[in-house]
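User: Okay, second chain of the day. Same drill as before: sequence in, structure tokens out.
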Amino acid sequence: MIAPKTPPRVTVIVATFNRSDRIEPTLRSIVSQTVKDIEVWVIGDGCTDNTEAVVAGLRDDRIHWFNRTENSGSQGGPNNDGLARAEGRYIAYLGHDDLWLPWHLENLLSLIESSDADLVHDYVAVMDPQGNHTLIGEPPFGLGYDMHFVPPSSWLHTPALGTKVGGWRPAHELSVGVDLDFLLRALNSGASVACCPGLGVVKWPSGHWKGYARDAPYPQKEAWREIETSPLESANGLLNKVAGALASKNGPGVWPSWKGLLHAWSVLKRELRWLIIWPAFVYGRERWPLRELMQRRFRNARRHLRVKRGLA
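Assistant: Same drill. Structure tokens below.
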């Protein structure tokens, strides 16, 4: 009699589109996790390059490849395909431009298995080509996750949560990003979220780095070499870069320093933006006429972001 197959602890879903020249460090950061009991689904969003060959070249039976026949235009479609194939006890995501530090999954598993949380996350170092690096973790004092976005590359959630919220919705139906929409629906369903206090993810937003342009920078390769060689030193170096970026914004001589003026202006814009967005949250984004107005605004913003990324 054949014993039933034991499901892996984690299913990792990597949504990708034509990143064969850059996705290898991302995948190596997954297979180098201290947690080895995983399966990985690399889901191509209608890829036309040789990503499949790169995946096969890693020669790891835990990594599986599936390519969609049509491009969905966002990570939502590939993530749903990954959820449909997932056999893990928990679900994690990693953007094809991002890297995990080796302890990422171990820390999140420890938190979700010792708490009642449905979704957990750790800290993300967001790298900017102009040096305006930031750190995303738990919400600032007085805010909840409905007003604080955390990138999916830092998430770990139960499969039941994905089923409960109905998976990822198509981008063209939404007034916010597919990742924020998933998180808001999870919160509205009563899901609890918890933060693991430690750096686990390094993110290079594609829109900032023009990720699909021919001449786009490729910092992930060097970053992965440093993480692979000395993960603790690399993590400390990343945190120092973020701290330096924050210090340069808030350092001495804010007035009349031009950097101080720019920072003050960015803070003012952010506060004014919240004054506009807060009534929308109270009224309800999905109610008429706000839904139609915000969908139009989001479609325009999405077109602009595709251009920044180097896409048609």
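The mean pLDDT is 87.

User: Thanks, on to the next one.
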